[in-house]
Amino acid sequence: MKKMKTSDDWGLFEWALYIAILAFASWFIVTFIGMRTPVIGQSMESTISDGDQLIVTKFSYRLGEPKRYDVVIFPPPSETDKKANYIKRVIGMPGETIQIMGGYVYINGEQLTTDVYGLEPINPLSEGDLAYQPLTLGEDEYFVLGDNRNNSMDSRNPRVGVKTKADLVGKAQVRIFPFDKISKISKESEQ
After folding, report:
1. Which of 2, 3, 5, 43 is catalytic?
2. Catalytic residue flag (residue 82)
3. In this structure, is residue 55 part of a structural domain?
4. Which residue spans traverse the membrane (predicted)?
5. 20 to 30 A Cα–Cα from 14, which one of 2, 76, 81, 85?
6. Angle formed at CA 49 by CA 43 and CA 52, multiple of 5 degrees
7. Could you say which of 58, 88, 163, 171 is catalytic?
8. Which DSSP state fits 142?
9. CA-based diameter of the chain, in Å?
């Protein structure tokens, strides 16, 4: 004789199915849609600060290309730096020639004057730094800088170097913490 399923059996199955669906949805969102990331350090002051929490959209660069002044997230350059992703701003675009001299960024020989994020002149570079000499970016290469230019490990450092679209985890969209600073991460100017 067959035993009939009781309502307790169905309730347990429904809960297990519900938990499985939530686990899959969570995995899907974190893997393909977006994630929360903490800001560690002062390299993006005064746009974002140490301790801020950001929402990053991972699909941004699956559907489109990075643009100048996007705030992007990418993994640290080495296994020893695994404490957090790096957060920087796209300054140089594919095919452009970048050079930093006299404290300023030059793109294709013209000083970048629309850069409202770097609030002070850049300290002199040394010969080992990228962009000390003119640096021409490849067809899928981006030059990224921290907004706090004199306190940032970014594309100027050969350990970080230029980034490709595949290197970019996503685009920072919104600051969600601290609560009194909830705001969109804006891109105020275009070139």
Report:
1. 43
2. no
3. yes
4. 15-35
5. 2
6. 125
7. 88
8. B
9. 89
28 is a domain residue: no
| Residues facing residue 90 across a β-bridge | 144
User: 71 is written with which tokens?
Assistant: 């705030």
Is residue 29 assigned to a domain? no
Q: What is the pLDDT of residues 71-105, one digit of tens each?
A: 999 988 876 566 678 999 999 999 999 999 988 99
Contacts of 4 by beta carbon, 8 Å cutoff, 6+ apart: none
Cis status, amide bond into 49, omega within 30 of 0: no
Question: Given this model, what pLDDT does residue 125 score?
Answer: 85
pLDDT > 70: percent of the chain = 84
| Structural domains of the chain, count | 1
Q: What is the DSSP string of 27-85?
A: HHIIIIIEEEEE--SSTTTTTS-TT-EEEEESTHHHHS---TT-EEEE--SSGGGTTS-
At which residue do the structure tokens 């002199």 appear?
124
Report d(CA 35, CA 173) in Å as an integer. 10
**Higher pLDDT, residue 158 or 58:** 158
Which domain range does residue 173 map to? Answer: 36-184
- Tell me, what CATH number does 50's domain have? 2.10.109.10
Q: Is 88 known to be catalytic?
A: yes
